[in-house]
Each structure stands twice: as structure tokens, then as C-alpha cells.
Amino acid sequence: MVKRLLRETKEYTLSAVLTPVFMILEVAMEMIIPLLIADLVDKGVEAGNMSEIYRIGGYMLICAVIGLFGGVMGGVLGSKASAGLAKNLRNKMFENIQTFSFENIDKFSTAGLVTRLTTDVTNVQNAFIMILRMGFRAPVTVIVAMILSFKINARLASNFLIAMIIILVFMGFVMATTRKLFETLFRKYDDLNASVQENITGIRVVKAYVRETFEKTKFTSASQGIYKAATSAEKMIATTMPMMNFVVYVCIILISWFGAHFIVVDGTLTTGELVSLFSYCMNILMSLMFFAMIFIMITMSVASVKRIYEVLEEKTTITNGDNPIYEVPDGSIQFKDVVFGYNKTAERPVLDHVNLEIKSGETIGVLGGTGSAKSTLVSMISRLYDVDEGEVIVGGHNVKDYDVETIRNQVSVVLQNNVLFSGTIAENLRWGDKDATDEEVKRAAKLACADEFIEKFPDGYDTYIEQGGTNVSGGQRQRLCIARALLKKPRILILDDSTSAVDTATDASIRRAFREEIPNTTKLIIAQRISSVMDADRIIVMDDGKLNDFGTHDELMARNEIYREIFEQQTGAGSGDFDKTTEGGED
Fold first, then answer.
1. What pTM does this model have?
2. What is the predicted pLDDT for the residue at 285?
3. Which neighbouring-strand residues pair with 541?
């Protein structure tokens, strides 16, 4: 996993490599300075030799400047490398998310993906810079300081070794204990983001039903979950610094006690050497403290690395074949014994052995109760999902044989959720065709009966649409989404309950425009209102994932109980006088 993530340093590899070099340069200068201090005390201060003091002091100044340069460069390059890694990770994750099929997206919640792109990447960024700077600086400091300390006095230096072992064992225990706590914490972040996202998205519903208190309670619960998980982890981490300070002070006391004995009684240690040992003691133990910080950052980032890796390595379930087809001949559709289920382990599929054939240019209505798999049926045509069994044939070829982009450009879908993006009306419509002319944009809007309200806006097609289309009505959003789909000039147009928010007269006008202006486009209209589909060439009746019937309005009225019941409930007409209603159905 780590190797996969490190590949994203890319153009920042040189900065990542040079950072440890400059940090080691800084360490080298820091290790030389205590030796110079020892000479300064022994040869300069105690001997009263000012020339030695000036000479050694000059060397110390040079070392300090070189160390400062190494530290600054290490900090600058490390920041550049870590920020670059974070940028590339976010870009790579977002690019991969764009390739996901609906099946892939179903595996990750929206809130979870947002957390991975933000909090998790930030954790990895912080851990990366810590490793680049302190991860190389700390061990080099410890090793060099230990060698020089043992060279000065092995018996005193052995205290450092014992202290280091104690700290490392303690840090290993903390890391092992907190790892699972941080994994839980990040899952809690997902819950919090989900709560916020759901609340903001549905804020109008929350206000309409006066559910602010309920939403506050739900948010507080998610926030409390983060608090508890974070507190449990922080309690363990909080013991790190007191433990480090305790070990440092004990070492200083031992060095002072035994060092004084070696100077005064044994004469085996000079005052300058004792001062150097104090410096190395602080260097060693401070480096171990940096190790502690690195361990904490790594502990936090382990869970984040795993979550980021999952997104980066997720492969879309919908891909091109070896020799994809780049042209859809016509809009004919055929389902051959199609079986599909969202949950592969479920007892029964969502679509159960569906067989049907639609001619190019036909207008097909799709009716059925809630949960009858109407939307799932049409999702198979543009490969939003792939069938588990059977085949979906479009234009005489299996949809899996087409280039994915080609089939989706030729099968235009207006989904139940009418999503508009921030930008002008014209910019939103050109999602269907970024190169569309103004005339083509206006024609598509006219076909969708959207021109009538667009032209009433002061800025017309340059009217700004807020994110999600919140500054236009539901019916206006639906018509704009239909116009956007029409700009693709598709072979097949699918309207998934996309006129539910418009009045019946506008609905009839839209259908009339489709019939007259795009007769060669195959049109599938999923609707709850029977008036929206009764004038279709043929009508599909779905029932519990199965194709219950398929025929014209007259045929279904004569033989299909489900269709006849829907008709009678919505029109109030008896089965014997449906002809009269049919004649006026379009208007």
C-alpha cells in the first residue's frame, strides 16, 4: 500500500530525496558543536586562552550557519514534497472516482469519499513530512550521538542506551493500542460527514417538517462518537510526553551524579566532556521524542493509507472490451433473458429473466409500482450497471461490445434526481454537447418546453444557476435536464420519471415535440401518470422485477389487469369507455 502511494510523489521525487540529505547535514553540524563546546571549555575557558575561545567560537558559528541552511532547506523541500504528494493523491483519487461504475460507487458512501479526499490525505501528508524530516534526522542523530557519547565515556553513555530501550518499548505499546482506535475514529468522521451532507442537501425538507431539533440530535450523536473515539486515542498519546520527560530527567540526574564522581574522584572525565554528554543526552532523548511523534503520525495515517489505497486500487466494473465498437447503428433495443441484482448474495434478483424487443424510433412507456425495477431496467441500456446473466443488445450489438463513452453518448438518460450544476443555464445545457451552438441550445430548450421560462429571465440563457438548481423550480429543473439530454442527439432517450413535476399540458407538449421533432430517436418514458405513456407505441408493465406485459394501450387494457387497474384509478374511467379518454389523453 505504502509503495503504491509513494508513486504519487512523481515530479516531487527530487524534493523528497533531498530533504533527508539536508536534514542529515543539519544533524552533522549539531553533532560537531558539542565536541567544539568541550574544547571551548577545556582549552579555552579553563585555560583562560581567549585566542582558542575566538577560534573555536568561529568554528561553532560556521557550523551553526551550515546547520541552519540544512534545516531551512529540509523544511522547504519537505513541505513541497508532502504538499505535492497530497495534491497528486487527491487528483488521482478523484480521477479514479470518475471512472467508477454505479456498482463501484455503491461500495463507498459519499461522505466516506469526502473524508478520504480531505482528512485522510491530510493525515498522510503530515506523516510523510514527518518521515522525510524527522524519520531520517532522528535515527542519524541517535546513532551518531551514541557513538560519540560512548567514545567520551562508555559507562555514562550506557544510561542513554537503557533509556532508549525503555522509550522504544513504551512507544511500541502505544502504537499498537491506538491503531484500532484511530481506525474507529475515521469511520466516525464518515458518519459525521454523512449527517452534515444529508442535512444540507435536504435542508428544505428539514425546515418544512420542523425537524431541526431531530437533526441537531443526530449531529450531536455523530459528533459525540468522534469525541469518544478521539478521547480514547488521545488518552494513550497524552502519556507519551510525560513518559519522555521522566526518562530525560532521570538521565540528566544520573549523568550529573556519576559525571561529577568521574571528574572529582576518578579524574577520568573533564568538565568539557561532561557538558558535551549533556548535549548528546538532550539530542538523543529529543530524537526519541521525535520518534514518538513519528509513531503517533504513522499510527494515525495507517488507517488513512488503507482507506486511500482502497479508492486508488478500486477498478471499475465496467470497461471496454478488446476491440470496442465506436458507432451505434440505430436505437433498437433487445433484452435477452436478463438477470440482475444489486446484492449478488440476495435470494432473488432485482430483474428476473427479462425478455423484450424494441424497434429503433419507437416510443416506449414503462409503468409499474414502486420497487418494480423500472429504473433498474433502463440502467442496463447505457451500462450504468452490467447484467449478471443474459444480454442487452443495442443497435444489433451487445452493449458490452461498445466503447463505454460511445454507448453513453448515444443513450441519453434523464434520471429521477434532476441535478444541475453551478453556472449559467447555457453552461448547464452544454453538458450535453460542449460544442453546441447557441441555436442548438435554444432548439433543445424549445423541445423540452424550457424556452418559455428561460426567456422570461432577465439574463435569459446567461441566468446563473445555483449549485443543485436551488433557484429554479422542480419542473424547471426537469425541463432543463431534458434539454441537456437532447443536446447529445442520442439514438436512445430515456426519461426516468422526468416530467413528474410539470403540469399535464406541458408534459403533453414535450411528448408531442419528441414525436414530431425526433422521430428516429428511440424514447423510453418511465412515468407514474398513465397519461404520460398511454399514447406511446407500446408500453412495458413491470411487476416485482419481471416483465408482466408489453403491448399497446388498447392491448393492455384488454388483457392486463395491472395496467387496467392503474388506468381506472388515475382516470376514473371504466374499462368500457377508455377509448374516449385516450383520444383526449395527449391534451
1. 0.69
2. 74
3. 367, 549
